[in-house]
Amino acid sequence: MLLSRTECIRILDNLLGPSNEEKPTLLGYEVVAETNAIGYLGDYYLLLLSYAVGETSFQRQVFVKALPQKSAEPQKEAIFRKEAWLYETLLADMQAYSTVKWLANCYYTRPDLCVLEDIKLNGYVLGDMEELDETQMLQTLHALAALHAGSLIYEHKSHLNIGDVFGNHLQEVTVSPDIAWFTTGLAAVLAVLKTLPQYATPEYASFMDLKLPGILDTIYEQVSTSTMYRNVLCHRDGWAGNIFFPSKPNAPAILVDFQTCRYCPPAIDLSFSLYMNLTSSERRHLESSCIDFYYDCLTADLNHYGLDATMMLPKAELLQSYEEFRLFAAVYRAVAATIIKVPLAYITNEYKYVDRSSAILSYMQDNEQFGACMREYCGDIMEIAIEMKK
Question: Residue 176 gets which letter from DSSP?
Answer without folding.
Answer: S
